[in-house]
Amino acid sequence: LNALDHRWDRGDSGWRQDSVFMAYLGRADEARRSLVARARSYDRQERFPAFWGPNYDWTPDQDHGGILMKTFQAMLLQTDGDRIFLLPAWPRHWDVEFKLHAPAQTTLEGGYRNGRMESLRVTPESRRADVTVLSPSPSPATDG
User: Is the pTM of this model over 0.85?
Assistant: First the structure.
């Protein structure tokens, strides 16, 4: 983590994956900040807001949106073998309703609101024992 904290090449655009790394390390506040910065960054000369870029050489920059989606998913769900971790890097003040697909033909549907899990359905039910709901990280209620 020391090398990560002291790296000189940081970024929230294009193919840079800082936000994904932060989500996988459980650094919810850093992942949140990076995700919000990435989502707000677009080419104002383009007709559609999802035409990100040009970050390096073209518009639309598909890498930018792909990393945005991967970060969002990694903040919500991570797996390790048969184990499923829900909300591993999710900011406590963000509400969410989700339907997520995990390995072994598993689907998780639920809602997290006002700092608590309101509902969770795991299909097939036999996979429920493999699911660990982690406590979302406290973070400043700013930037989204």
Answer: yes
